[in-house]
Design a protein that fits this description.
The protein has 14 helices and 33 strands. The chain has 671 residues and is an alpha+beta fold. Helix 7 runs antiparallel to helix 10.
């Protein structure tokens, strides 16, 4: 039996393939248009990427001369960041200061004795106060951890509590204020006080005096200047005065206690002119009266003369074991200045037996008064005469000396002392910290490096797009493999674009051109601050390098650092300068590059025109494709119809042939 053809199911002559083959030929024009659209889209992407590079260069150039330029930024450099740090705004004035941190601001922090993990906090109302602010917690009773969590939720920004595992199976409760300053004492009352007593956080202690004066008694102070014909030591207005070459020993006797400070006031006075002629008994030759065993007292003779700095080392403390420790030098000032030292830092655990004052000056008296011991912890008692038994820290103000002027603040961050400057005390120190407010040279350097980097990336992009030379890509050693492959696809795409080639040449000329500045430093070129197309320097053995002729800029970092250190204002003018005094920058490297990029990246600029033209071409090609799609659809339908009719006619002929065969066979059988 012959095969039965079912239309739509099986084609006797494989007409589907025949139609597909015919349509492939018909689709060739459409495929060419689609490929053209892909190429146009790629070109548009390249122009857009180029525009982004230009915008980046424009922004980095504008940053170097706009009102936000880094040349006006200020930074604070401290000689010892462990003692003090600072920040500065653009309004800060360049200047140097000397700071001494006598003490930092601290909050109250009270620690309990070790408590068992099973310790329970009873029900009650627990009241705490920090300065004028009160925190009240109504607690239903529970474990230490539950009490701590409830107190932290209630305390928020005023106070907090924490548990410290000081021993295995035991914890101590730490309650601390979050607000430093002597006026912000942490006080406990009501059930909080009872709980603190129960935990050994508070208790009765013997009263401690806030201060104790050490009398300047002429009967007890020893004149250790040695045999003399003049008077070195005398007393006036409750002050001990020591003439040039004198030495006095002030007997004391105390053991250092935690937190106790030694305070005194000192002034220096220059001899009057008439005293030097004989009215003052100290005018005679001190060198003739001071014996050899007191050579530590200064002599005015030329052989034993000392410098001013050495003459200011006037005080030392002597311990009961015979050893001594010198105190830091005093300041040369006619008015009395206050000095404070933490006894534990000076003496450790030794007993101080005396304070020695030596005048090594040859033309000045030294006056000492108001010697006292001050205990800043003496007033830490809470209500009811109780005191913290284990204070981790005691609320106190920050005390800072600025150029010898004492500054007291309740916090370690001080922003109202120097206009535009915020300083933060980090720790006490006997030595002054040099505090300098300077231009932020690192930020300036980073901005210049960013500008050069953006210029080089744009120049590399333009070189790749306008040149058919793979060496252009190979020279860019900083590129990744994927970036190199991407650039190879772009290579030479705009080789015939006159606008882009001209732009590249303009950039190169702008980078090498001289610019006016308003100073007499003779600085007019980027190469004079270490930026140029070839920074190998004279005498370099390197030969010809074509990469150095493609317009890329190099940075000699040492030369740039040196220029920023010495010619900062001129460098600022090199990048942006107002030539006519109208307060508007109209010249300079950064201004020129921003100006060169602007026509390309602004709305309606070159990049917009280029991409708009490509969009028009793509729209035109797409319309052609749409027309071809309709024509191809009609063509395919026509072919299917024709081949369908052909197969239908063939089927009718087959049926007719079969009918004739049957009729002939029937006639033969009838015969």
């Amino acid at each position: 039996m012959s095969d039965i053809y079912v239309p739509g199911v099986k084609s006797r002559f494989n007409t589907e393939k025949m139609i597909d083959d015919l349509m492939k030929v018909e689709r060739l024009p459409k495929e060419r248009f689609e490929k053209q659209i892909e190429n146009l889209q790629a070109e548009k992407t390249y122009w857009q990427d180029l525009g982004r590079r230009m915008m980046t260069l424009r922004d980095s150039a504008r940053f170097l001369y706009s009102f936000q330029n880094p040349f006006n930024d200020r930074v604070v450099n401290a000689s010892d960041a462990s003692v003090m740090i600072g920040t500065a705004t653009r309004e800060a004035v360049e200047r140097e200061y000397n700071f001494t941190v006598k003490q930092i601001a601290q909050p109250d922090r009270f620690l309990s004795t070790p408590l068992e993990d099973s310790f329970k906090v009873g029900e009650g109302t627990y009241t705490f106060s920090v300065g004028q602010d009160a925190v009240s917690l109504t607690f239903r009773g529970g474990s230490l951890r539950e009490f701590t969590e409830a107190l932290n939720r209630r305390g928020r920004d005023k106070m907090q509590a924490s548990l410290i595992a000081v021993q295995r199976g035991k914890k101590s409760l730490l309650i601390e204020s979050k607000i430093p300053g002597a006026e912000n004492r942490l006080k406990l009352s009501g059930d909080a006080e009872n709980l603190a007593l129960q935990m050994g956080m508070l208790g009765q202690q013997p009263p401690r005096n806030a201060s104790m004066d050490i009398a300047i008694d002429p009967a007890s102070i020893k004149d250790a200047s040695g045999p003399k014909a003049v008077q070195f030591l005398y007393f006036e207005d409750d002050a001990l005065k020591l003439g040039a070459g004198g030495k006095a020993v002030i007997p004391v006797g105390f053991e250092p206690a935690p937190g106790v400070m030694l305070q005194f006031e000192i002034a220096t006075t220059v001899f009057a002119t008439e005293d030097a002629t004989g009215d003052n008994p100290a005018d005679e030759s001190i060198a003739e009266t001071v014996s050899d065993d007191t050579a530590d007292a200064a002599s005015p003779s030329e052989d034993s003369a000392v410098s001013d700095s050495d003459a200011l080392h006037a005080l030392s403390v002597t311990f009961s074991d015979g050893t001594s420790t010198p105190l830091p030098p005093i300041r040369d000032a006619e008015s009395f200045s206050l000095y404070e030292y933490l006894l534990s830092d000076i003496a450790g655990d030794k007993t101080i037996s005396s304070i020695e004052l030596v005048n090594r000056n040859t033309g000045k008296d030294i006056a000492l008064r108001n010697i006292r011991l001050v205990d800043p912890n003496a007033d830490t008692a809470v209500e009811g005469g109780l005191q913290p038994l284990n204070p981790v820290s005691v609320a106190q103000d920050a005390v800072v000396l600025m150029e010898g002027i004492e500054i007291i603040r309740p916090t370690n961050t001080i922003d109202d002392l120097i206009p535009g400057v915020t300083i933060t005390a980090k720790g006490p120190s006997d030595k002054p910290v040099r505090f300098s407010i300077e231009p932020d040279r690192e930020s300036i350097k980073d901005a210049i490096i960013a500008f050069v980097g953006n210029y080089n990336r744009l120049m590399a992009e333009v070189n790749v797009l306008t040149r058919n030379d793979e060496r252009v890509i190979q020279e860019l050693t900083y590129l990744s493999t994927d970036e190199q492959a991407d650039l190879k696809r772009r290579m030479g795409i705009f080789a015939g674009d006159a606008v882009l080639n001209q732009y590249r040449n303009t950039l190169q000329r702008a980078a090498a051109a001289p610019y006016p500045t308003g100073t007499d430093q003779g600085l007019a070129l980027l190469s004079q601050i270490g930026i140029g197309t070839d920074r190998r320097g004279s005498g370099s053995s390197a030969g010809y390098d074509p990469a150095r002729l493609r317009g890329y800029l190099e940075i000699d970092e040492k030369a740039l650092d040196a220029a920023l250190q010495t010619n900062l204002s001129t460098i600022q003018q090199l990048f942006g300068y107002d030539t006519n005094g109208d307060l508007i920058v109209d010249s300079g490297v950064a201004y020129t590059f921003e100006t060169l990029c602007k026509p390309y990246v602004e709305i309606g600029g070159v990049i917009t025109l280029k991409t708009g033209t490509l969009d028009s071409k793509m729209s035109q090609e797409q319309r052609r494709i749409d027309t071809l799609d309709r024509q191809l659809a009609a063509k395919e339908a026509s072919l299917k119809n024709q081949y369908g009719q052909m197969e239908s006619a063939y089927n009718r002929m087959e049926r007719m042939t079969s009918s004739l065969d049957q009729f002939s066979q029937q006639n033969n059988n009838n015969r």
